């Protein structure tokens, strides 16, 4: 029989008596305590900014620095750190303000407790910039005191008020930008041309405030245009100017092809000026972009003395376009088509196959230790007779002799034909060949613009939409047609001007050739010859620049 042991009951723990609840205050650290008698002085810096470099703004800039220096030094609770100031710099981009960024860096290094500034607009005109930097500083325990708005970012209840003021500052900046843009447009419409002489080779500011030609610099500009039209590349021209020790427009010793290109494209060398080439769509980024029709442009003619004749400038633009739009030819062994301009041999640009129209390429043959240069059709050379069956290979010396013989005949026999061509081009330039007056067309475009503005106001009034719509469409269509016609007339005039300039040059070159024996010169061939077609193995057809064609035999 099993016996069961009965365990005694567990003893109850003694009753715990709770002590009275007490609350003990932990004082704030002395450096952050609100009691002015125990806290250490705040390390205070000031930020000030003026957005222009005008003399009166310079006084404001210096005055702000003096005021803040004295204000910080006189306050016993503040310890002076530094005055951070940007002058003549926009407030819409923090990264473009060097002293503002220095201020932020010093804050990150723990050097500053408080920043004082005159107003939100002085701190930043970009709402996002303003809020981002205030939040950054606040996260580090650094306050910004805006005096005019009486806002301390460490004690403000929320960001709504600061956001409102920052938005107002940005809106003010946008309005200022719009007013500046409007002012520029009004200035452009009046034909006011501003020139940066520091980067403008060939001109300086005259005693009357207008551009005047610097003769020694103008000679460099003319040299650039002449060499370019003779067939030299922009790199060759740049290298030549560098070797001669001629300084660039900015006074540097090394010329770049892009610098040569900008001179060739600058219409101001003709005495004209195109205003509104770029514009700034966003006042916050201040990034200028090319004006492709988004904003009005203004072309001012005869604004100042010309260095380059208009016809020469037009020829340079045609040559730039020709080189940029060269026919691309796929060559064997390459991964892409080749269309780059080459100035090494004139015939690389001029010689084409009479059968397939493909350019010829210069090839060096070597036989029995002797080398000989020949020209061959690229299609025939790379792909055999598949695409070009009969094109001949032409020896370079034979080809050059044939072209020089034709050039001599051209110089002797075609002066009368050149005179006729000059007369026709002169008629085109004077407008006799076309009865349309560009000035009358421009005036009519202006009249239509005024009428369209009146219609805008009428259409904006209720009930006038239907009655004005047909009239609006008619005027708008007429304006578009007139603008196209004006552009066509201008293009024709520019081409005629370029042709006249080219003829003048050919007359000058031809007169010089009559008095000396002809020799093969690459620049001379480019000036006089437009195209050479290899018709067969026995003869070629040369087209000279005025459009006159002569045949020449190939005598091996």
Short recap of the structure:
The chain has 556 residues and is of the alpha+beta class. Helix content is 45%, strand content 16%. About 2% of the residues have low confidence.
Describe it for me?
The protein has three domains: about 30-180, Rossmann fold, CATH 3.40.50.1390; about 195-320, Alpha-Beta Complex (Hect, E3 ligase catalytic domain fold); about 345-555, no CATH class. By secondary structure, the protein is an alpha+beta fold. The longest helix has about 50 residues, at about 465-515. Helix 4 (about 125-140) packs antiparallel against helix 5 and helix 7 (about 235-245) packs across helix 8. Helix content is about 45%, strand content about 15%. Strands 2-1-3-4-5 form a five-stranded mixed β-sheet, with helices on both faces. Strands 14-18-19-20 form a four-stranded mixed β-sheet. Strands 15-16-17 form a three-stranded antiparallel β-sheet. The protein has helices at about 55-75, 100-110, 120-125, 125-140, 160-190, 215-230, 235-245, 255-265, 310-325, 345-350, 380-385, 395-415, 415-430, 440-460, 465-515, 520-530; strands at about 40-50, 80-85, 115, 145, 150, 205, 210-215, 275, 280, 290, 300, 330, 335-340, 350-355, 360-365, 370-375, 395, 530-535, 540-545, 550-555. A hairpin with a 5-residue loop joins strand 6 and strand 7. The N and C termini lie far apart (about 145 Å).
């Amino acid at each position: 029989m099993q016996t069961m042991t009965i365990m005694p009951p567990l003893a109850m723990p003694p009753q715990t008596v709770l002590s009275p609840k007490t609350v003990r205050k932990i004082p704030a650290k002395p450096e952050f305590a609100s009691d002015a008698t125990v806290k250490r002085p705040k390390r205070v810096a000031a930020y000030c900014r003026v957005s222009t470099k005008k003399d009166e703004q310079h006084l404001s800039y210096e005055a702000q620095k003096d005021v803040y220096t004295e204000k910080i030094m006189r306050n016993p609770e503040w310890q002076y750190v530094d005055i951070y100031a940007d002058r003549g710099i926009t407030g819409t981009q923090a990264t473009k303000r060097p002293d503002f960024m220095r201020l932020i860096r010093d804050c990150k290094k723990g050097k500053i407790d408080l920043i004082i500034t005159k107003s939100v607009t002085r701190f930043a005109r970009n709402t996002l910039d303003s809020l981002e930097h205030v939040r950054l500083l606040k996260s580090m325990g650094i306050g910004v005191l805006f005096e005019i708005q009486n806002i301390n970012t460490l004690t403000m209840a929320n960001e709504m008020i600061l956001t409102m003021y920052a938005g107002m500052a940005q809106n003010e900046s946008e309005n200022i930008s719009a007013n500046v843009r409007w002012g520029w447009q009004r200035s452009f419409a009046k034909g006011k041309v501003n020139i940066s002489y520091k980067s403008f080779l060939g001109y300086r500011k005259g005693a009357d405030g207008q551009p005047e030609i610097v003769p020694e610099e103008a000679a460099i500009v003319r040299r650039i245009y002449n060499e370019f039209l003779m067939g030299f590349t922009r790199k060759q021209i740049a290298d030549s100017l560098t070797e001669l020790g001629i300084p660039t427009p900015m006074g540097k010793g090394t010329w770049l092809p892009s610098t040569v290109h900008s001179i060739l494209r600058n219409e101001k060398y003709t005495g004209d000026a195109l205003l509104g080439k770029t514009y700034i769509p966003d006042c916050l980024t201040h990034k200028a972009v090319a004006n492709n029709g988004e904003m009005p442009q203004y072309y001012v003619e005869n604004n100042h003395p010309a260095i380059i004749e208009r016809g020469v400038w037009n020829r340079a633009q045609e040559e730039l376009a020709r080189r940029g739009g060269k026919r691309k030819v796929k060559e064997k062994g390459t991964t892409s088509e080749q269309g780059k301009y080459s100035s090494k041999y004139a015939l690389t640009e001029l010689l084409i196959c009479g059968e397939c129209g493909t350019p010829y390429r210069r090839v060096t043959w070597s036989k029995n230790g002797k080398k000989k240069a020949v020209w061959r059709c690229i299609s025939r050379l790379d792909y055999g007779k598949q695409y070009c069956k009969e094109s001949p290979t032409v020896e370079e010396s034979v080809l050059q002799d044939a072209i020089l013989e034709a050039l001599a005949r051209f110089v002797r026999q075609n002066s009368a034909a050149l005179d006729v061509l000059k007369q026709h081009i002169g008629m085109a330039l004077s407008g006799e060949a076309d009865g349309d007056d560009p000035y009358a067309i421009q005036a009519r475009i202006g009249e239509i613009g005024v009428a369209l503005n009146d219609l805008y106001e009428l259409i904006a009034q209720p009930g006038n939409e239907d009655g004005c719509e047909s009239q609006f469409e008619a005027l708008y269509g007429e304006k578009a047609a007139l603008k196209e016609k004006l552009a066509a007339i201008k293009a024709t005039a520019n081409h005629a001007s370029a042709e006249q300039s080219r003829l003048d040059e050919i007359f000058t070159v031809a007169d010089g050739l009559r008095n000396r024996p002809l020799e093969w010169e690459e620049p001379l061939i480019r000036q006089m010859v437009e195209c050479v077609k290899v018709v067969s193995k026995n003869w070629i057809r040369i087209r000279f620049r005025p459009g006159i064609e002569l045949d020449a035999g190939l005598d091996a």
